[in-house]
Model the fold of this input.
Amino acid sequence: MSKNLTERRADIVFAIVLMALGLGAVIVGMKIPPSRFDPLGSGVVPALMGGGLVALALLVLASALTSFKIGDGDRLFTGLDDMGEETPSLPRAVGAFAWTLIYAVSLEFRLVPYWASTFVYMAALVLALAPHSKRSYGMTVVVSGLCAVALDLIFRNVLSIDLP
Amino acid sequence: MTINKTTEETMTIERRKVLVLAATAAGALVVPHAAAQNFPSRPVRVVVASGVGGASDIVARMVQRAVARTSPHPFVVANMPGGGTSIGGREVASAAPDGHSVLMMHEAVIVATAQGIFKPGIEELTPLAITGRDIYTVVVNGTSPYRTLKDLYDAARTRSVRTAVNIGGLNHFTSLLAAQSAKVEIRPVQHGSGADSVRSLLGNQVEVIFTVPSDVIEYQKSGQMRILGIMSDRRSVYLPEVPTTAEAGFPSISDLNHMWWVPKATPADRVAWLRGQLKSAMEDAEVRSQMSRLTIEQTFLTGADVEAHVGRKKAEIQILVDKFGLR
Amino acid sequence: MTLLEAFAGLIQPLPFYTISLGVFLGIVVGALPGMTGGMLMALTLPFTYYMTSSNAITLLIGMYVGGISGGLITATLMRIPGEPASVVTTLDGYPLARKGQPGRALGLGISASLVGGGLSWIALVLLSPPLAEFGLKFGPFENFALAILALVLISSLSRRSFVRGLIAGLLGMLVGVPGLDETSGQMRFTFGIDSLSAGFNLLPVILGVFALSQVFADLMTGDVKVQRVNADRKGIFISVADYWIHGWNMLRSAVIGIFMGAMPGVGASVASIAAYTTARNMSKTPEKFGTGSEEGIIASETANNASSGGTLIPIITLGLPGGFTDAVLLAALQIHNLQPGPHFFKNNTTIVNTIMAAHLLSHALMFVMMVLGSFWIVRLVDIPKRWISPCVLVLCVVSAFSLNGRMFDVWTMLAFGAVGLVLEYLRVPLAPFAIGLILGPMAEGQFRAAMMWSNGSLEPLVTRPISLTLLLFAAALFVWPFLRERRAATST
Done:
């Protein structure tokens, strides 16, 4: 099994990012002074973790550069690779993520009441994913509206949580 | 039913949809701002800066029930533990000062402020009232050889006596006060919660713990624990046979007062209304009996009294912080 | 009131309705991604003020049991864990469902939940005092050794990709670092961000890494009409033979669950992880794990339900809570003027027997509801993705917010959603990440507390008997798979 070029490039970037994270943890950790009651201090263990990450990142880097396999890519989740006959659509996922970010921003700054923002978010998402037909507009609006209002009522009135 | 739509029809449907959505959004903007000018216009949110089931939480919920019995405007309790009370504290300190946000937390917020953990700190809060006072006690395991405080502190001088505390928390500060009064050192071992400390003493993992009577009174009755002293200026009605630390020769006082706070800029009339609610809750018969059962002294301080108390505590804690470099 | 009378009391109309409602709501909330059973219990607390103490307790216990059990539904059908305790169920439940046996996957999980709960009930009724006494012997060194034992599981869980598994574990541990460090009372790694003073909350991170990343990964695939699992309800009733075949696994996993439940601070998630990895290490077919192994599903679900009984042990014997759900139960008791403590067990036999009866009855109700419900729960996968995905996203957002009433947790969840996607792309296994996140802070905290306790000496780690035993277990667990491979290699 040979690694293709994209995988190797991804691994190299991954290794570099890990090394940066690890070094960051080591640096920040070592700067923390020990406390009076705990001689070990709170920075030692994160620094060790960071060190471990750096070491492992080097292994990944070495593996990617020399294509010498140190441990195969195991899958504990039937992950993103088994798409089979279905065609992947990255723009759709990215778009959904971006739209979710916008929804979160609207909640963060309390631009509109919860039920309104949730309604718009849900409806738009469902419509974007759906094949367009007259029937589905109506259904979408109704169901999204119901969900948004139901959630608002349940959380705000029944559970007394101050929704944004 | 026609299957093919003309482009025009599709456009009209699209436009209509957009208009409906826009109208809804616009309407939604208008409605909440026609909000009531009367207070409270919605339930008052009481943020308890510690976990469910803790001492503050139980007191807050008792008061919540009492308020619900007499007032049409309910209190709602929300737990926001974490960050040494800073998560809950900051939530209220930065909330709108309209009287709908209240913090319920004992001296731990003062301790957190002094250590720089809770920013912006109690400076941004006004204390409403104290509803109930709990006293710290010095407790050892029932099988231990220590029968008096003197025994314990003598041992601390020679061998190392360990205590289970939450470093940076109120019981840690209490252990420092106690040790200071006897000029000894008691080694702290980190235990995250009061229950962990109690468990640790039950299992004889540490020699002493500092906690409130309600945590240990059951174990004292069964002989599994022994309360050596109470860190107060007078004996407790719930533990009349336990000497005060002063009587034992090592005067030190540490109590835990259940305090309520609001953001600093809350208008005076709303502060007064909230204080009134708390006062009548403390006069409620069921609250009184529950507090008795929990061995909490039924004090009620408000106004200048509670501000004086806060000032006093701040000063005491600051001394300890400076001495042990805890900032 | 004897235990039998307590059971009879629960079959009266109002109590029965209460407990059924609790179990039902618990299952629903446990299945829905976002809210957990524990959160539901805390939010229901104000409503219990107006009930009698026994109804309040039965409602909460019903929710607790339902919550732990319900998580397997979405874990199996959609690869989205409804609760952190169901994370490992996704590892084998979903692949089995995808292979065309969703009914059997659900059936195995439900039966395992019943057996786990039943066995832990036996321990609750018969062994509470000795188990509680044993738990008291755990000091910081023992807790640290226990955490080491569980962390060793990271390595055994990712045998084929050792390096990436370790990376995942370390990353998980690092995520647990920022915030207030309890042992020193100092803030660390917060970089001045006030919202980080409590660190990253577990639930938003788990939701992001497991639920969100799964939703977005699903959205990436072309067809949005059909879920990847077919609605086939065949096999929901597993046969008596199945119980026999999986019996040893069930028993072992239940013991792990009871034990972990009775220890403070450990909980259902760690129990299911520990049982799963132990099952994998002891299995004759370890390579099947991760592809739809029945043993994996059984181990995970038996253990997390068994921990429900274990967790009640310290409450009824010592009056001490072991975790969040315990704290809620204790709060409910206190509000009803009951003071749990050592006398509790002896003097309040009514409440104690009600607790025990409610625990068993909840499991029975859970089994009935879930089996009957399975017939149309499996139909859930027929709902097109364009409805499921937005619903899941909205639920996750509102749940993350409800945790603490602040948007920071929502942002955390979104950020870790992206992280989860990236990790999956890079073939970094997610389960070790979860283990590192859950166990890292515990291991570190207990180690430093142990150092404070022993004044800097490591000696008690090996001189204290329980600690030594746990470490030996850990070493054995670590070495056993290598030995077995060696033996297999030499015998061929």
